[in-house]
Amino acid sequence: MKSSPSPVLPAEPAANFGQTKAKRALVLAREIVEDIESNAQGPGDRLPHEDAMLARYDVARATLREALRFLELQGVIHLTQGRGGGPVITRPQTADFASSMALILQFMDTDLRALLELREAIAPTVAARAAEMATVADLAALEACLARLERERDGPEFEETNRRFHDLLGWASGNSTFGLLVSALHLLTRSMSEGLGYSAQERETQLRCLGRVLQAVRMRDAVGARRQMERLTDGSTQYLAERSPALLAQKVRWGNANREA
């Protein structure tokens, strides 16, 4: 008795093939990151040449190149051109995180009000943590930034230096995720509020509040730092709402985080 022939399976749809290829590239990208970490490589170090990587990971050339392009988009490597070129390790920056965050928030239909509410929730905790954890170097940087802000009270740089103070406070918290999130929020909101500016009265209010926050941080007064930052963020949001109500309804766009300072 003859055995029945094995059924012929239909060819995999092109769309599914593309998805499988993309998944393989993503898995390979993760393997490359693991190897970078395990080999203690850092910014400026080069990855092996393409042929060596093909042999190491046993993948198709197209899969390797797609994985490398993905890592470049994430800020993990930079692909140099020409003789002697190839993948060079970099370090993902705050802007890379902010860009990914902005893309997700755009599809969540997030507006500026939501970002300000997030700031109100975390900024007081960041200030309290900074009061507990700030180093001598952190305090010196904060004091220098506040002194610069006072000199720029009437200048166009005021808003950017103001953001810089909050960034420094975030990194002074001793928790790098606070610093990363605070800085990313500033990258997202910078272009959304561009051109609005603070009135002279609001600038003076901001300076007084920041001075009190810094004094509390300097005195290691976590409760006081939290209280002063709550006053500052609440007042700032109220100011923006009264001056430009439509601004708070502005939607986050992916491009918000891709603009240079």
UniProtKB/TrEMBL annotation:
PROSITE patterns registered for this protein in UniProt: HTH_GNTR (PS50949)
UniProt-listed Gene3D superfamilies: GntR ligand-binding domain-like, Winged helix-like DNA-binding domain superfamily/Winged helix DNA-binding domain
Segments forming domain HTH gntR-type: 22-92
Coiled-coil regions listed: none
InterPro entries: GntR_C, TF_FadR/GntR_C, Tscrpt_reg_HTH_GntR, WH-like_DNA-bd_sf, WH_DNA-bd_sf
Keywords on record: DNA-binding, Transcription, Transcription regulation
Listed SUPFAM superfamilies: GntR ligand-binding domain-like, Winged helix' DNA-binding domain
UniProt name for this protein: FadR/GntR family transcriptional regulator
Organism: Novosphingobium aquiterrae
Lineage, broadest ranks: Bacteria, Pseudomonadati, Pseudomonadota, Alphaproteobacteria, Sphingomonadales
